[in-house]
TrEMBL record:
This is LacI family transcriptional regulator. It comes from Paracoccus liaowanqingii. GO terms for molecular function: carbohydrate binding. The keyword Signal applies. It is found in: Cell envelope. GO terms for cellular component: cell envelope. Residues 1-22 form the signal peptide. Residues 25-284 form the Periplasmic binding protein domain. Belongs to the bacterial solute-binding protein 2 family. Gene3D superfamilies: 3.40.50.2300. Keywords: Signal. InterPro entries: Peripla_BP_I (IPR028082), SBP_2_dom (IPR025997). It holds the Pfam family Peripla_BP_4.
Length: 312
């Protein structure tokens, strides 16, 4: 994320008079067929409510794999002269040309969730996403709070070397090492396959019956981890922390299989993304990277508005 901040140039976008006027802000996401992205829509709507200068449109292809359809949606938005664009690119390379075209047309662009590849720097004005390092540290502090400062903690990771994994798991590990005497077991890599995570966690629990905690670092990994804990009859016997917030993970929290799960701020991506575009249109300066954070969802807050805004 530090590299992104360094490379992302916040140029003073020379907005054309037409683009700088009030008008439509287009939010285009990876797919509309997902509760996660519908939460983004709710956040975007919250940002637009209460003002009359801008209207909001929300669109996306029927599947995240329909990259060409998303490119066409961005082209259409440019052609109808939207005042600003909030985009969650489905492909880091395929969306670069249309984002550059938006920039050349004087349309401010804010990217959310996943950034674009090399060559896109300067063609968008802000990137909003989870700071995975900060999220990993937050989960690590929760582990210390719940499990204490001594004993063994297992790490169930997903794909080695992926940017989000380096930040999330790397900073989790470094934080534990700097702030506790907890011994790290792993990490094991599920390749983001639930079945792999189930089998790996089963083996880890059997080999380390004295684990005081375990961390499942993304959705399929945490789901497999939760199922393994349940099958081993160890629910409630160790601090189990997940990441992401689908229905399976929510149920694990309710049942006490997971102590908590860290859920990325999809609502905040929409709300802060639209707000950033409106700020740019108004001539204000925005930060090049905006951390949309995570919410630690547990039994105490799972029914709260804060949790409902991120769960999917």
């Amino acid at each position: 994320m530090t590299l992104l901040k360094t490379c992302l140039t916040v140029s003073a976008l020379a907005l054309t008079a037409a683009a700088a006027q009030a008008g439509e802000i287009a939010v285009i996401v990876k797919t509309t067929n997902s509760n996660f992205w519908q939460n983004v829509n709710l956040g975007a709507q919250a940002a637009i409510d209460g003002q009359s200068e801008h209207t909001l449109s929300f669109d996306g292809p029927t599947a995240e794999s329909a990259v060409a359809d998303q490119v066409n949606l961005v082209e259409n938005a440019i052609n109808r002269g939207v005042a600003g664009l909030v985009l969650a690119p489905s492909d880091p390379e395929a969306l670069i040309p249309v984002v550059q075209r938006a920039y050349e047309s004087g349309i401010p662009v804010v990217i959310i969730d996943s950034t674009l590849g090399e060559g896109a720097e300067g063609s968008f004005q802000a990137f909003l996403s989870t700071d995975n390092c900060a999220a990993g540290e937050q989960v690590a502090q929760r582990m210390i709070d719940e499990a204490g400062t001594t004993g063994k903690v297992g790490i169930m990771s997903y794909v080695a070397g992926v940017g989000s994994e380096i930040g999330r798991v790397g900073c989790f590990t470094e934080y534990l090492e700097a702030n506790s005497d907890l011994e790290i077991v792993g990490p094991l890599y599920s390749q983001s396959q639930m079945a792999n995570a189930l089998n790996q966690t089963t083996d880890m629990l059997a080999s380390n019956p004295d684990l005081v905690g375990i961390f499942g670092a993304n959705e399929p990994t945490a789901v497999g981890m939760g199922r393994a804990i349940t099958q081993a009859g160890k629910a409630g016997q160790l601090t189990a922390l997940g990441f992401d917030g689908n229905e399976d993970l929510q149920q694990f929290v309710r049942d006490g299989v997971l102590t908590a799960t860290a859920v990325q701020g999809s609502f905040a991506m929409g709300e802060l993304g639209v707000q950033a575009v409106m700020d740019i249109i108004a001539g204000e300066t925005v930060e090049p990277f905006i951390n949309t954070g995570v919410v630690m969802v547990d039994q105490d807050n799972i029914g709260s508005d804060e949790a409902k805004n991120v769960l999917y």
